[in-house]
Specification:
heterodimer, A: about 375 residues, alpha+beta, Butyryl-Coa Dehydrogenase, subunit A, domain 1, Butyryl-CoA Dehydrogenase, subunit A, domain 2, Butyryl-CoA Dehydrogenase, subunit A, domain 3, 3 domains, four-stranded mixed β-sheet, four-stranded antiparallel β-sheet, about 45% helix, B: about 375 residues, 11 helices, globular
Chain lengths: ~375, ~375
């Protein structure tokens, strides 16, 4: 057997022995995931066991170096781990903006000290992070942000407001874009890390049309941030932010974990009597399977340093529009059953809430329209501002 | 196996890109169209394909070919699509060879050398109606002496009138709708009681209606097993469908690239039309569709070359997605070119015509989306 075949066999055996049966069931929704943190709330003992075992192995972040809490796996080995986890239906052991977003930015822009300190915490699920990007007046035009960090010698004093901060009320730390020079739009932003328990930080959940509150308003009132908590250079936070946005878009696109399973297959009887709906479902299955292939290709290319650097924008656009379409069809197939918002049969309105939640997919992390702008300019090289 | 081209495949791609650009660009296609060529392709070009090794790309090395897979065949097909290069490559070297690989040594020895050398062209006599409906094949093959007698009609036999041999799907048993009872035959072009009526199609390619009025073939003409031809036919169709999807991706990519270039050159209202967001967003959407189609095609080819049981599903996805995305590419292409997009002088319209023909070849996007639904059990 080749080394990779050995690795596959060992991986499969380890997963079979160590992944609790409950962790082989699909997630019911976002809140069902394991998010770790300083004061973690585990939905079950199995969830905690699974996270701890995977973290111990370095497999919460398999391709990060061992010194930072990873397992130092090669691209081929991480792909095998993903494939074997998929075969057994293993859940991701840890959902984390630290893993998906901040981690890659720290790996590229962080100092050695920052990497050792923060990345290890992220890998073990010890700190839950949130992202301070958007502001009430700065959505698609993010670079116009106003939250200001005043230089006080060995620290900054931060004042301002963020919005759409995912799970800010549950997060331990924030990575935050802060203006440190009012005279330069792009080169006047710094990328700061600070504790959400700092004096002057407050959060207020935003009730969404789904009835849930995954996002918050976040307020900073004279928050002190030590100078060693900056990532990258002073006033060059936009470079870090853009790099990180690529990873955020990849995450939201669902590349690598596109929905599995056919909606049409769940409503076979209805499909037989509603040919127009069946046609829509068939096309959805075509696009879903095609996009899964795209996700695989995209990840393989990225791990090998191939592919266009702006490709995550295309992935985000396609993946989120596809997910919205999927949930439209779930609603159409569900008929009046899927309208039930509060009932036992509907599991608390799972279908309509999930449907409404997907409407944010093509807004958060950059709207579909912004994605198309970026693809037009950076990939197709079309002219104009 | 990562889902991108290996170094060897990337080299083959460079070779194919250079070759088609130099030997069979759209100007070559126009030349043969305008001389009203009855074959619809150049035999000299087919010989050049042979010199490059392309004609025997799927034929095992020990039988004179390159012994490569569907990924490599797809690389050549994408460039054929991009340049609208007319050739019998898809029918002969991809779909036809995939069926013949399941044939006994007699048939392989008879046909492979000519395919490798670029002297032989194959035609595929599968469809019986205007739409591709493989399970509805009704053409009869009755036992007669030590062979069979074929009776019925076929259509959309691409390059049928130029073919040296037709691969014919017919019923030795069962009835229309069943997979059991089908048999594939290798039928010589000079067979008695066979009539051929060639028609030029919208994309200037040639396809024939073929009539079989008791055409006699001997037992040695059977490809694979009698009554169990469905398995061989599936191999032929999967290779053909994935191949047509790869060629479609080439057609779509060619149309898209040409259109994006045009957006960067054409000025109206005092500025480049590519500055208009209305067009930028449509172009970017098209790019996304084409990228996803390309990934689906590559995944299908990988699965076929790995011998995966689920390859058939992915092939259906690939043909459906490539058909839908490329159709968008050529429609957007003509529209964004404006008036000149309607002229024969400009190439974009040729891409629209080629897409239309390839869309039907081996089943259109709806046909394959329907198969995807069936394979999902609904």
């Amino acid at each position: 057997m080749s080394d990779l075949e050995n690795f596959r066999a060992e991986t499969r055996a380890w997963l079979e022995a160590n992944c609790p049966p409950e962790m082989r069931e699909p997630l019911k929704d976002e809140s069902d995931a394991c998010w770790g943190g300083r004061n973690p709330t585990f939905k079950s003992e199995a969830q905690k066991v699974w996270m701890d075992r995977m973290a111990e192995k370095g497999w919460t972040v398999p391709d990060w170096p061992k010194a930072y809490g990873g397992a130092g796996l090669s691209p081929a080995e991480s792909k095998i781990l993903r494939e074997e986890m998929a075969k057994l239906g293993c859940r991701s052991p840890l959902s984390s903006f630290g893993i998906w977003m901040l981690g890659p930015a720290l790996l590229k822009f962080g100092t050695e000290e920052q990497k050792v300190h923060y990345l290890n915490q992220i890998a073990k699920g010890e700190i839950r992070w949130c992202q301070g990007y958007s502001e009430p007046g700065s959505g698609s035009d993010l670079v116009s942000l106003q939250t200001f960090g005043e230089d006080k010698g060995d620290h900054w004093v931060v004042n301002g407001q963020k919005i759409w901060t995912s799970y800010a009320d549950k997060a331990d730390w924030i990575f935050c874009l802060v203006r440190t020079d009012k005279n330069d739009k792009y080169k006047g932003i710094s990328f700061l890390l600070f504790d959400m328990a700092s004096e002057g930080v407050s959060t207020k959940p935003i009730l969404l049309i789904s009835g849930n509150s995954p996002f918050c308003e976040t307020f900073f009132d004279n928050v002190t941030v030590p100078k060693d908590q900056i990532v990258g250079e002073l006033n060059r936070g936009w470079d870090v932010a853009k790099y990180l946005l690529g990873h955020e878009r990849e995450m939201i696109s669902g590349a690598g974990n596109a929905p599995v399973g056919s909606v049409g297959a769940m409503y076979k009887d209805l499909m037989a009597e509603d040919p127009l709906l069946r046609a829509d479902m068939a096309k959805l299955d075509v696009d879903t399977l095609a996009f899964r292939a795209m996700g695989e290709k995209f990840i393989d290319e990225m791990k090998a340093g191939k592919g266009h650097p702006a490709q995550p924008n295309m992935m985000k656009y396609f993946g989120t529009e596809l997910n919205k379409r999927r949930h439209e069809l779930v609603m159409a197939a569900g008929g009046s059953d899927a309208l039930e918002w509060e009932s036992e049969a509907s599991k608390g309105g799972a279908r309509p809430r999930a449907w409404l939640r997907t409407k944010a997919n093509s807004i958060e992390g950059g709207t579909s329209e912004v994605m198309l702008n970026v693809v037009a300019k950076r990939i197709l090289d079309l002219p104009g501002a | 196996m990562p889902l991108y081209h290996t170094e060897d495949q990337a080299m083959l791609k460079d070779t194919a890109v250079q070759f088609m650009k130099a030997e069979a660009p759209t100007a070559h296609f126009r030349k043969f169209r305008d001389m009203d060529c009855k074959d619809g392709f150049s035999h000299d070009l087919w010989k050049q394909f042979a010199e490059m090794g392309f004609t025997g790309i799927l034929i095992p090395e020990e039988e004179g070919g390159l012994g490569l897979g569907n990924v490599e065949a797809g690389i050549v097909l994408e460039e054929i699509g991009r340049n609208l290069s007319p050739s019998p490559f898809l029918s002969t070297s991809v779909a036809g060879v995939s069926a013949l690989k399941a044939a006994d040594k007699g048939l392989r020895d008879r046909w492979f050398p000519g395919i490798v050398s670029g002297d032989t062209v194959l035609g595929l006599a599968i469809d019986e109606g205007a739409k591709h409906r493989t399970q509805a094949i009704a053409m009869k093959a009755e036992r007669s002496g030590n062979g069979f007698k074929l009776t019925g009609k076929k259509q959309f036999v691409v390059q049928g009138a130029s073919a040296d041999m037709l691969i014919v799907a017919a019923r030795t048993g069962g009835s229309a709708g069943e997979t059991q009872g089908l048999t594939l035959f290798a039928v010589d072009k000079d067979s008695a009681k066979m009539s051929m009526e060639a028609a030029r199609l919208v994309d200037s390619s040639m396809a024939a209606h073929v009539g079989f009025d008791g055409v006699e073939v001997d037992g040695g003409a059977v490809i694979g097993e009698v009554d169990n031809g469905w398995a061989v036919l599936t191999r032929l169709l999967d290779a053909g469908r994935a191949g047509a999807a790869a060629e479609l991706v080439g057609v779509g990519a060619g149309a898209m690239d040409m259109t994006v270039e045009y957006l960067k050159q054409r000025k109206q209202f005092g500025r480049l039309i590519g500055e208009f967001q209305a067009l930028q967003h449509r172009a970017a959407h098209l790019y996304s569709e084409m990228e996803v189609a390309r990934a689906a095609v590559l995944k299908a080819q990988h699965m076929m070359d790995e011998g995966s049981e689920k390859a058939e599903l992915m092939v259906a996805v690939a043909k459906a997605k490539a058909g839908q995305a490329t159709s968008l590419a050529v429609k957007e292409g003509v529209q964004m070119h404006g008036g000149i997009g309607m002229t024969d002088e400009y190439d974009i319209g040729l891409y629209m015509k080629r897409d239309r023909a390839l869309a039907e070849f081996f089943g259109d996007a709806n046909f394959h989306a329907d198969r995807v639904a069936r394979m999902h059990g609904y």
